[in-house]
User: What shape does this take?
Amino acid sequence: MNLAPARIGLDQWDHRYRELIAAGLREPFYGGPLRRHLLDGDLRLRSLRFDNSPAALRLWNLLLSEEDRLFEARRKGKVIIATMKDLGSVPILAFSIPNTIAFYPDGAWWVPCIMEQSTCDLKIADERGIDESFCPVRAMLGAFVSGEHFPRPDLITCSVGATCDDFSAIAQRLESLGWPIFWWEIPARRCPEAGEDEVELPGGFLAPGPQVRHVAAELERVKGAIESAAGQKLEAAMLCEGIRKANRVRRLLSELRRLVFTAATCPLPALELLIAEMLAIHYCSDRNETIEVYEDLLCEVRRRVGMGQGVLDDGTARVFWVNPVADLRAMNLLEECGGRLCGTEFLFCHALDEIPENLPPMEALARMALADPMVGPAEDRARRICREARELGAEAIVISRIPGASHCATEGSMIRRIASAALDVPVLEIEVPPISDAISAALRNRLEALVETVHQRRNA
Ligand code: SF4
Assistant: This one.
């Protein structure tokens, strides 16, 4: 049942859901009305506006049912791997073994937002010395201790080396509380030196061959730990198939992003695009459903683009957004202020790039892991942002700082300086806390001023 695309609130979704069911909507096993998640405690849903398509409903339901799915996986005896501080590498290893799934405990980052701080996760973290001087990922510590958001994993992996101070400290605290962690090292990416072989990584960064080989050896160790937890060998052919599936996910998302960023009329809201991107890292603990969710979204977006339909007025300011927002409401706010996404860099662009399929699989994964924008110099990250913002015709850049995040103190201003010098567009730096209501008026003012600047420049 196709309606004109729109962004609607939860009350309107109640009505819309009844209409869709009456019209014969078929849903996957985790389907249902959005409101049930509110009743389960996801209070922030009251403040959000959502896309009105069945494809978006499926996306939200996949995201918001992950906790239930993880507990169900535990009941069914699946092997559960918690992949901490990992943006897309270890989940590929885990999902390549039957009956084994990975999830991303760092995803608890959004619990204080989604549940409007109604849970005890932050209090638990506070009591264990991880206070609000840390970024919102400290909620993960509370989630492990409370056991409310995910079951105790069979294996916890965590990368060290080129890892932010916040996460290193929190993961070490977690281990001290009795959660054994399998640590693996990802070194800080550096430029190849004279005499070293030079390896081009997915996305275009360069790394020295010895670093690639070191990460491949580290991932080989991770593979051994997963095999022990799963009680099965991960043969090379299985991993190659896992990489092919990961690339299928990435190609679908890449096409979705291309259409959303380049269509004359914006065919999908920023909020749904952000959620869709997050699925690519860890598949929301269900890779097959992630693929189907993407296929549905693509189908809807293609239909809208074909009919020239969208969710925003034509002529909205084209904004390239840097860093994920701790409060999902900020994505709605951008659109209320007259902006639309024309590009994103949510800290994990390497998890969107295709993984080479013509290399030994572990080397391919190592190249991808080293392409993480957070393990290299901030200048590399800034240059990639500039390149993509230019290609996508960005009229403004928003750098959204994460409160307490150790890297944001200097990185944001560095990206702003480089982007301001390289691109002839206004660059705005803001900070978005997990619940931004108290500063919403100030954020609105700043975003509206940015959009107004874009319009003035168009008319100049
Ligand atoms: S400081 Fe940044 S990179 Fe580190 S956990 Fe927080 S958001 Fe992630």
Q: What stands out?
A: The two ends are 44 Å apart (CA to CA). The first strand starts at residue 7 and ends at 8. DSSP finds 18 helices and twelve strands in the chain.
